[in-house]
Specification:
CATH topology of the largest domain in chain B: Rossmann fold
Strand content of chain B: 5-15%
Number of strands of chain B: 6
Structural class of chain B: alpha/beta
Mean pLDDT of chain B: 91
Largest sheet of chain A: none
Low-confidence stretches of chain B: none
Shape of chain A: extended
Order of helices and strands of chain B: HHEHEHEHEHEHEHHH
Oligomer: heterodimer
Structural class of chain A: mainly alpha
Strand content of chain A: under 5%
Helix content of chain B: 55-70%
Distance between the termini of chain A: 13 Å
Radius of gyration of chain A: 27 Å
Number of domains of chain B: 2
Number of strands of chain A: 0
Number of helices of chain A: 7
Low-confidence stretches of chain A: none
Mean pLDDT of chain A: 86
Shape of chain B: globular
CATH class of the largest domain in chain B: Alpha Beta
Radius of gyration of chain B: 21 Å
Chain lengths: 236, 262
């Protein structure tokens, strides 16, 4: 009970309170002053180190799950082979490059300016795949807009009208169309800027303020030990 | 010794006062609720629909897919997501639904596995829990998105939960889920992603609703009391904004200057 519940709660309270207190203090406070810049600057880096160790746990889980899938010929097992092949090739090349073993001299470029094998795979295989996934967003935005911008009720009509005005005012095609409308090039961009600067910003700020208070309330519950979901437990 | 240099002069004004007032209000309402006073929290449609979504998945014999977002466990949205995940796992265990939790962050993966296992145990169905229910996919944003989209298209889940911090992958995931006919409940505090979820998903928990979800589901007095304290702080801030705007209109600047953080 102590190691699984009380100790984590105690550590959480300590780690949560210390940055809050040091936020208001300077390094001239007696006794704890020298620790203030340390807490402010270093603690966040330790989180990155811990996450690095946790990444190992994730890699082990990926290997176990996919090896099991291949062994039992579960649905989609050929994808598991390609995943493990990619993981091993990039992983091995990356480690060898990081330790500069043999022909693998560095992660980016060799001393004479040529791309290392790891970097070559990154820019010729990994980056294009990322760009392909990102580019799907354009089509998905179009399909989502087609479904949602309908005159169903008052709110949907306002959404449709505002989206239409903003698209006219912010896209090259809109600029071209406005040139054909008398006065369009003068008042539509101004209306677009007003929509983005006033109602849109106001709504965003409202959500941000609410979310910030919600996050602060959750943080207080975590520090006090009332919220224990991060330990896999129910509340107090 | 002069005590002034002990405190950062630009930080002990409005930030400290706000922190103290906020903490006092939250602690006060937690204390009230623990003493038995009933705290009312309005119905949140997205949370009430969780049971409907899992029931639908059970009837159709298809999966329930839960994604706790792309941030690590140090992010408040992920902590809030773990609270909702516990409820979803508990219901899935009770109904016998096929739950699958896919993680982008390794620390979140570790916490999620504990949460789901504990939920199955508390629901009295530890036999239904297998480690494969909670898996780590990859840390890269679009590799994760591609993997999850592929899983959605192949396995056609009946209920998708996107609860946590999301970035550009939000619309990709939600649209793919919509295309396979899943009932989708999303929740995030990322202002830039909320419009995508609101347009595509059946229910969306916006900002503070996500943070209140854990308290709402647990029904514990201390949790509900903290929501009430937060609401009173928000009311106070709204009043400050109204008073401040009025004073600014009449050329009185002291409130704005007092609330400015340098």
């Amino acid at each position: 009970m102590f190691w699984k519940v009380r100790l984590p709660l105690l550590l959480t309270a300590l780690v949560g309170l210390v940055p809050i207190v040091t936020f208001f203090l300077t390094d001239r406070v007696p006794l704890i002053g020298p620790a203030v810049p340390f807490v402010r600057d270093r603690v966040e880096r330790y989180m990155i180190i811990i996450a690095g160790f946790a990444l190992l746990l994730g890699v082990v889980n990926v290997l176990q799950g996919n090896l099991r899938r291949i062994e039992r010929r579960l649905p989609g097992w050929p994808f598991a082979i390609s995943l493990l092949a990619g993981l091993l090739v990039m992983g091995v090349f990356g480690i060898l490059s990081a330790f500069r073993v043999g022909p693998f001299q560095g992660l980016l470029a060799t001393p004479d300016g040529r791309a290392t094998p790891f970097y070559w795979m990154t820019i010729h295989m990994f980056n294009p795949l990322q760009a392909a996934m990102f580019s799907l967003l354009a089509f998905y935005i179009a399909s989502a807009a087609f479904r949602s911008f309908r005159v169903r009720n008052v709110e949907a009509t306002i959404l449709l009208t505002a989206a239409f005005v903003v698209m006219l005012g912010r896209t090259p095609l809109g600029e071209y169309v406005l040139a054909w409308i008398p006065g369009g090039e003068r008042w539509v961009p101004r209306l677009t800027d007003w929509i983005m600067a006033v109602p849109n910003t106001a709504a965003q700020r409202g959500v941000i303020i609410g979310a910030a208070l919600g996050a602060a309330s959750l943080s207080l519950r975590v520090i006090l030990g009332i919220e224990r979901s991060y330990l896999g437990l129910k509340g107090e | 010794m002069n005590a002034a240099p002990w405190f950062e002069p630009t930080r002990v004004g409005a930030p400290l006062v706000l922190l103290l007032v906020f903490s006092a209000l939250v602690l006060f309402f937690i204390h009230l609720s623990r003493r038995g006073r009933e705290i009312f929290i309005r119905r949140i449609a997205g949370i009430a629909a969780i049971e409907e979504a899992i029931g639908r998945a059970t009837e159709l014999g298809r999966k329930v897919l839960y994604l706790p977002g792309s941030a690590s466990v140090d992010d408040n949205q992920t902590i809030a997501s773990l609270a909702v995940m516990r409820h979803v796992a508990s219901l899935s265990a009770s109904y016998g639904a096929d739950l699958s939790v896919l993680n982008k962050d390794p620390l979140t993966f570790a916490a999620a596995r504990e949460t789901v296992q504990e939920a199955y145990l508390q629901a009295g169905r530890p036999d239904l829990f297998t480690p494969d229910r909670v898996t780590y996919v990859t840390y890269d944003q679009f590799a994760f998105t591609a993997a999850v989209a592929g899983i959605m298209v192949r396995e056609r889940p009946a209920a998708n939960f996107f609860i946590g911090a999301y970035q550009a992958e939000s619309l990709l995931l939600a649209e793919t889920g919509q295309s396979v006919g899943a009932m989708q409940i999303a929740g995030t505090a990322e202002v830039t992603q909320l419009p995508f979820f609101a347009v595509v998903c059946d229910y969306t928990l916006m900002g503070e609703e996500l943070y209140a979800a854990g308290a709402y589901l647990s029904k514990e007095p201390a949790m509900l009391g903290s929501i009430k304290g937060q609401d009173f702080t928000k009311a106070g801030l709204i009043l400050c904004i109204l008073v401040g705007v009025t004073l600014e209109i009449f050329g009185v600047h002291w409130l704005k200057q007092a609330m400015t953080i340098r």
